[in-house]
Specification:
With about 600 residues, the chain is of the alpha+beta class. The protein has helices at about 1-35, 85-95, 205-240, 245-265, 270, 280-305, 310-330, 335-360, 365-380, 385-390, 395-435, 445-465, 480-485, 485-505, 530-545, 570-575, 575-590, and strands spanning about 55-60, 65, 75, 100, 115-120, 130-135, 140-145, 150-155, 175, 185-190, 200-205, 470-475, 510-515, 520-525, 560-565, 600. Strands 1, 3, 4, 5, 7, 8 and 10 form a 7-stranded mixed β-sheet that branches. Strands 13-14-12-15-16 form a 5-stranded mixed β-sheet, sandwiched between helices. Helix 4 runs antiparallel to helix 6, helix 8 (about 335-360) packs antiparallel against helix 9 (about 365-380) and helix 14 packs across helix 15 (about 530-545). It is elongated, with a radius of gyration of 36 Å.
């Protein structure tokens, strides 16, 4: 019977994992099969629009920004040495047949050059307009045009140049457009890029709008970097305090993921090194390989699967060694083969991470499952990057920001899950360390600690001339719990009673368990009779709330005796803490019992 009941709970994770796998495969298949996503341009193909000029785009004073890509034409040149004047001459002679561009184009131009052609006309002279390319990872980009005197002008950006040599020292390649005259200007944009297909948005901004967009972007990226620094500092501090390798592994994965994000977003070469283009040209792919190499091992340390599968361990080691070799190859001498091996290795790393998630999920612990769920979206967010690199989808906002968004959401949740798991495992050691000063069952301060606090309160009350409060709380149905449900349920009732008292107590108040059915609360500071009665009433009302830890239909029954100390009668027994507490216990036992009255006052 028990085995039959346990089957649904064990089959649910398998259904969930199978459903997630089918959804992921379906998304990948649809993305790869979509005919409009990846266009393979035909060089030299002629069309009705290819022989004419591109549509003239008028830049009005009230416009903030404009999507320029639908108004452009493209042509792919197999000769990298062709200059802009030569392209202009080819256009006039009809040799270079430009084709209209669409937002879904993805041009594979490894070993070739992509030329984009567009015409702009500013309505006002000396109005400043800026052209921004929507990808920070471009090898070589240059903008060419003729000024009013017929002289060719050009601006150049890309990873082959240091950021200080760009027209604008920004994260994305940005060019200043011609602004001296209101005549129409024909522009030629030359793009040279290897490895993944080129599909980037082209946006024209006014100078004021561009400044506002830059401020918003810097604020968001600064918050992301600050979050990474905060999480890294917290994880290293936890590792230093608790000596647990899982926090060191978290810090290592955070560092690798942060460095990859900063390089992929164009921040690292912008703020760290403005002299060498090596950081933005090769380091991004090398960091991707290094992250893919160490990610499965770091995830294994973080999730800590109970089942030690020899096959997975061997695959993790082989994967790490192979990816480290590919990353070194990519950093020292990048080729098309090294790039493809990096993509395939990253897919293998994602598969290993999902295998670790599946093994971890079978443990059934809620905290461990939270750890697994926190790791999964980060691995899933790499999928758009791989699809872009393989040419299945065009470059877009999702391909650039999927990993930072997943990191922002999942990294804090992962650290919280790791901290919760660490606290649950350290709870036994913490309670064992607190046995000399705390109660073993409830975790409340023991009698010695309580009397020390009470002694200090008596000294302060005598010095300032005010009264302090004492509440004697009795669990009246403790004997019934022991008789009807056993000692374990009775202990649960005691623990729940201590929780109810702590929920209503202030930070300065102290609670102690006297015996099997009695608690005492020290209300620190100056207090009045009305405050004591109100506090006792709140405790009595909260204790009657139903609790899952108790049997159905049962609740706590607390009888509370409150006293404003010291009184003349208590001082006759002595002015020390032990005597004052003894007087309260004796007075509560001598007071008449009334089952209908749960709160009683003693001495007032």
């Amino acid at each position: 019977m028990d085995a039959a009941r346990a089957r649904p709970s064990t089959s649910y994770p398998r259904w969930a994992l199978a459903l997630a796998f089918l959804v992921s495969v379906s998304v990948l298949w649809i993305s790869a099969q979509a005919p409009a996503v990846h266009s393979k341009p035909k060089e030299g193909a002629s069309s009705p629009a290819s022989s004419g000029a591109p549509p003239l785009v008028r830049l009005m004073a009230g416009q903030a920004k404009l999507d320029l890509l639908p108004s452009t034409q493209y042509w792919i040149d197999h000769n990298k040495d062709t200059t802009a004047p030569a392209i202009q001459a080819s256009i006039l002679s009809g040799q270079a047949k430009f084709v209209p561009s669409t937002s879904t184009d993805a041009h594979s131009i490894d070993g070739k050059v992509l030329w984009l052609r567009f015409d702009l006309k500013a309505r006002e002279a000396y109005s400043q307009w800026l052209l921004e390319l929507g990808s920070p990872l471009m090898d070589d980009v240059s903008l060419h045009w003729q000024d009013s005197k017929g002289q060719w002008k050009s601006q150049r950006a890309g990873d082959v140049l240091a950021r200080k040599d760009w027209p604008l020292h920004t994260r994305l390649p940005t060019f200043k457009l011609q602004s001296e005259a209101t005549d129409a200007v024909s522009y030629l944009l030359r793009i040279e890029h290897a490895r993944f297909p080129v599909s980037l948005p082209l946006v024209v901004y006014s100078d004021s709008t561009y400044l506002a967009e830059q401020l918003k972007e810097h604020m968001m990226l600064g918050a992301f970097v600050g979050l990474l620094v905060l999480l890294g500092t917290a994880s290293l501090s936890l590792h230093g305090l608790r000596r647990e390798p899982v926090f060191a592994a978290y810090a290592g994965s955070l560092f690798l993921l942060g460095m990859f994000n900063l390089t992929n977003l164009g921040l690292l070469p912008l703020f760290i090194d403005s002299a060498s283009p090596l950081i933005s040209d090769r380091l991004n792919y090398a960091l991707a390989g290094l992250t893919a190499a160490l990610a499965p091992w770091l995830v294994r340390v973080i999730v800590q699967p109970v089942v030690h599968l020899r096959l997975i361990n061997v695959l993790i080691i082989l994967q790490a060694a192979a990816m480290l070799c590919c990353a070194t190859w990519e950093l020292m001498r990048p080729t098309w083969l090294s790039y493809q091996l990096l993509n395939l290795g990253t897919l293998c790393s994602i598969a290993l991470i999902y295998a670790l998630m599946a093994v971890t999920w079978q443990r059934g612990e809620s905290i461990t499952r939270w750890v697994a769920l926190s790791c999964t979206p980060i691995a899933l967010s790499v999928t758009p990057l791989i699809l872009r690199n393989l040419g299945a989808i065009p470059n877009s906002w999702l391909t650039q920001y999927s990993v930072p968004l997943a990191s922002t959401i999942c990294l804090p949740a992962l650290l919280y899950a790791l901290l919760a798991r660490s606290n649950s495992r350290r709870e036994g050691r913490a309670r064992a360390a607190g046995l000399p000063s705390h109660d073993a069952l409830t975790g409340l301060p023991n009698m010695r600690s309580f009397l020390q606090h009470m002694h200090g309160s008596i000294i302060r009350a005598n010095g300032f001339g005010h009264s302090y409060g004492l509440l004697l709380v009795e669990l009246t149905n403790h004997a019934w719990f022991v008789k009807e449900h056993g000692r374990e349920i009775a202990d649960r009732a005691l623990i729940l009673s201590s929780v109810r008292l702590q929920q209503n107590a202030r930070d300065m108040d102290v609670i102690c368990r006297l015996d099997d059915s009695h608690f005492v609360m020290l209300v620190e500071g100056a207090c009045s009779q009305a405050q004591l009665i109100k506090l006792a009433t709140q405790i009595s009302a909260n204790s009657q709330m139903p609790a899952e830890a108790l049997p159905v239909g049962s609740s706590l029954r607390l009888s509370i005796s409150c006293a404003l100390m010291p009184t003349k009668e208590s001082l006759s027994q002595g002015d020390d803490a032990h005597a004052q507490l003894g007087w309260l216990v004796a007075a509560a036992e001598a007071a008449p019992k009334d089952q209908r009255k749960t709160v009683r006052s003693i001495g007032f």
